[in-house]
Amino acid sequence: MRVGVAKEIKPQEYRVALTPAGARELVQLGHDVLVETQAGLGSAFPDEAYERTGARIVSVDEVWQQADLLLKVKEPIEPEYRHLREGLTLFTYLHIAADEPLTRALVESGIAAVAYETVETDRGALPLLAPMSEVAGRLATQAGAHCLEKPLGGRGLLLGGVAGVAPGKVVIIGGGIVGYNAAVIALGMGAQVTILERSVDRMRHLEEVLSGRVSLLMSSSLQIEESVRGADLVIGAVLIPGARAPKLVTREMIREMKEGSVFCDVAIDQGGCAETSRATTHDEPTYVVDGVTHYCVANMPGAVPITSTKALTNVTLPYVEAIAARGLRAAVDADRELARGVNVLVGKVTYEAVAEAHRLDYTPLEEALPLSRV
Ligand SMILES: NC(=O)c1ccc[n+]([C@@H]2O[C@H](COP(=O)([O-])OP(=O)(O)OC[C@H]3O[C@@H](n4cnc5c(N)ncnc54)[C@H](O)[C@@H]3O)[C@@H](O)[C@H]2O)c1
Q1: Total-model pTM
Q2: Is 165 exposed, middle or buried (0-12, 13-18, 19+ CB in 10 A)?
């Protein structure tokens, strides 16, 4: 199969959908790998690194026209719509339930669009989202610690303290993938860490894997109020699948935090879990409300493309290999996880939530597949 890798053109996006290591695996399996020129540059992979694996460096038009399977990181943006066509399988983050123009462009083009974020295991885990949560969680503590420094408007506090001086207090709301990874880094820095969770089972698991080094508290409005008040750094890391983040931190709670303390809302991509949260970008990541620095960057992994690219491609490559080996149709027949990723196929919306979001007809995948040529 011809596997193409397009360069991301969305502003501030430096990741690439395949590393040279991944390209070599695909070449060794007998596939023709086409990489758009400079596609890997933002992640420190020059064209030569791909060429050495046997991949071919091509132009933007060539990669979109010649590929059977096209790999990207972010959803196509308007200038890329012209490339969408029947016979092509696109594998990327799509998030089209929130993007009607793109949904319509995909449907009208006849392309097969498989979304990373809806590939889902039978137990409801999202294996292609998890690595970005790992990155964002680790980054949240790092960014929060930085924002606590005086020159950045923070309290002027070192999270880990030193011998004879108490460490800072980190409160993490939500102990899922983001929360766990934020805690790992905060513990590594020597901070005093509390995680507020709603699931007792999850807390038992965290107790075990973190060897009892964090305080685990049942999340309730009162508990959040008390914990947030005493914190130096609060990290918002809740998720209710398929829903906007609940507003667990009120403006009143923010007002009661210490001057110069920091609130890092990782859940901002789902609307944020504080009343005072609004999305920011890496260009201007923070703003201040009632003396509390808010860090609310919606695409945190974009700040560390070298790590994020590798973490992402580690998990996407097995699916890429499966599609490349068998074609999309046989690959989804064999793998229900991958089948859940198919959002649009030959002009039909095959993901129910997307159809509902835009009031379009929903066609179950089994009905759409026999019509497809992929
Ligand atoms: N900003 C970014 O760049 C970025 C990157 C990755 C993920 N995220 C976001 O981070 C959030 C967390 O993602 P995740 O992968 O860790 O999800 P996850 O499902 O692994 O964890 C969410 C946790 O929140 C808990 N929770 C739900 N309601 C709660 C409540 N009221 N109080 C306390 N805990 C509660 C759940 O029990 C679960 O353990 C999501 O909104 C995700 O979209 C943002």
Answers
A1: 0.91
A2: exposed
